[in-house]
């Protein structure tokens, strides 16, 4: 028997119905409780939108960037001075990277405070940590690509950490191969390896959100598990519209900052000197390097990741409300405060110019 086609849809959403009927978009949607349409619950979506801005501006810059160490710095000058809208595009890329890092941290803090990492979402918390690591990788490799003084110093740290890790870190050192300069390999990492890892992780992250649903609102009685029916339900399309709306706001802020404060490029780098500071997200680990050397830098950042990874396995109660999870909120708050203080101390201290080993 021939399949009966449904009558033509009418009404204000008919356009979406027509598209949905052909592309099966409904399959992507998941139940959205009312509270998931508030800003704290849209931070992950804003971050995702930021990554789209980064991909587009990155691809545009890649048309003019030369990853050969002899030409890299000059090609960035070319992007700033000659490429159409090059200075603006580069600055939007720079500011979006900074803003996206802020939205990831706020997203992490929201998930932490509302206990959304609890059963059955432990795995998605770990996938999120993977996304944080990949994002740090993007920021780090992106800094090196400028090939100015800050870049050369960041690369020297990369080399030292690679050597410290022995066989595990050899990819990060110049010794891995003499046939391709390390700058070129980090460029390939920035353009292929990290985006591939990001896509894999974000597909898993969103798949798990779809399968497990958004966590219930962290009311005093709420327990971990699937979202409860009595917390209202919003339309999925409205959820997406919010993400896009806030995402466009992020784009506007990045555009405004790009016009007011274009991204800086330092002098071509001189290897062996240490006179600059890293970007703000790496600053909390900078004093640890001063105290304990490169081991402090590696150990300090590894410790933060390990502590974060342990969170769902040490906070085993079923309660979501922060009031019923006081001890972990206090410990988390103290660690966050310590990182902020370390970052501020590093930010205001004068870099003591010295030669690196
Ligand atoms: C590139 C970075 C990331 C992106 C694009 C992203 C994206 C998202 C999106 C779109 C959601 C749906 C709800 C929302 O928007 O808040 C979400 C939820 C979630 N994310 Fe992320 N995320 C990222 C990083 C992280 C990090 C660093 C963590 C924690 C370590 C994390 C853990 C979670 C968890 C556990 C949920 C489920 C929350 C719930 O059910 O209430 N994510 N993420």
Under the CATH scheme, the architecture of the domain at 38-215 and 235-273 is Up-down Bundle
Low-confidence stretches: none
The helix fraction, in percent, is 55-70%
N-to-C terminal Cα separation, in Å?
A: 79 Å
Q: What is the CATH class of the domain at 38-215 and 235-273?
A: Mainly Alpha
What structural class do helix, strand and pairing data support?
Answer: mainly alpha
Biggest sheet, spatial arrangement of strands: 1-2
Shape: globular
Encode the helix/strand succession as letters: HHHHHHHHEHHHE
Ions and ligands: protoporphyrin IX containing FE
* Mean pLDDT across all amino acids: 91
Strand coverage percent: under 5%
Q: What's the name of the CATH homologous superfamily of the domain at 38-215 and 235-273?
A: Cytochrome Bc1 Complex, Chain C
How many runs of DSSP E, i.e. beta strands?
A: 2
Number of helices: 11
Give a quick set of tags describing it.
single chain; 357 residues; mainly alpha; Cytochrome Bc1 Complex, Chain C; two-stranded antiparallel sheet; 11 helices; 2 strands; 1% strand; binds protoporphyrin IX containing FE
Give an account of the 3D structure.
By secondary structure, the chain is mainly alpha-helical. The chain has a domain at 38-215 and 235-273: Cytochrome Bc1 Complex, Chain C. Helices cover 61% and strands 1% of the residues. It contains eleven helices and two strands; from the N terminus they run ααααααααβαααβ. It has helices at 14-23, 39-62, 72-81, 86-113, 122-145, 149-164, 182-212, 236-260, 286-292, 294-314, 326-348; strands at residues 273-274, 354-355. A two-stranded antiparallel ribbon has the order 1-2. α2 (39-62) packs antiparallel against α4, α4 (86-113) packs antiparallel against α5 (122-145) and α5 (122-145) crosses α6. The longest helix has 31 residues, at 182-212. The mean pLDDT is 91. Protoporphyrin IX containing FE is lined by residues 41-45, 47-48, 104, 107-108, 111, 116-117, 121, 124-125, 128-129, 131-132, 135, 202, 205, 209, 214-215.
């Amino acid at each position: 028997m021939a399949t009966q086609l449904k009558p033509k849809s009418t009404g204000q959403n008919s356009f979406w119905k027509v598209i949905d009927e052909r592309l099966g978009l409904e399959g992507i949607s998941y139940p959205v409780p009312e509270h998931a349409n508030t800003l704290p619950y849209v931070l992950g979506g804003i971050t995702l939108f930021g990554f789209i801005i980064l991909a587009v501006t990155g691809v545009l810059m890649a048309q003019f960037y030369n990853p050969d160490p002899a030409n890299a710095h000059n090609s960035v000058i070319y992007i700033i001075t000659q490429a159409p809208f090059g200075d603006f595009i580069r600055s939007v890329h720079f500011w979006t990277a900074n803003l996206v890092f802020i939205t990831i941290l706020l997203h992490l803090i929201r998930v932490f405070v509302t206990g959304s990492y609890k059963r059955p979402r432990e795995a998605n918390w770990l996938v999120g940590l993977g996304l944080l690591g990949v994002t740090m990788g993007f920021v780090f490799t992106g800094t090196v690509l400028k090939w100015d003084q800050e870049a050369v110093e960041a690369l020297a740290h990369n080399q030292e950490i690679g050597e410290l890790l022995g066989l595990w870190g050899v990819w990060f050192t110049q010794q891995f191969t003499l046939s391709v300069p390390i700058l070129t390999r980090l460029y390939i990492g920035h353009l292929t390896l990290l985006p591939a890892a990001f896509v894999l992780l974000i597909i898993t992250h969103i798949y798990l959100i779809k399968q497990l649903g958004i966590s219930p609102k962290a009311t005093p009685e709420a327990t971990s598990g699937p979202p409860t029916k009595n917390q209202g339900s919003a339309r999925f399309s409205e959820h997406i519209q919010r993400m896009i709306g806030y995402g466009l706001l992020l784009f506007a802020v990045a555009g405004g900052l790009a016009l007011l404060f274009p991204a800086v490029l330092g002098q071509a780098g001189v290897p062996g000197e240490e006179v600059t500071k890293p970007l703000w997200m790496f600053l909390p680990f900078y004093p640890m390097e001063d105290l304990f050397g490169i081991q402090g830098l590696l150990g300090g950042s590894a410790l933060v990741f390990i502590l974060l990874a342990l969170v769902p396995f040490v906070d085993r109660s079923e309660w979501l409300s922060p009031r019923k999870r006081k001890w972990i909120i206090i410990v988390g708050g103290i660690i966050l405060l310590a990182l902020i203080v370390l970052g501020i101390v590093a930010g205001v201290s004068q870099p003591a110019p010295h030669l690196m080993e």
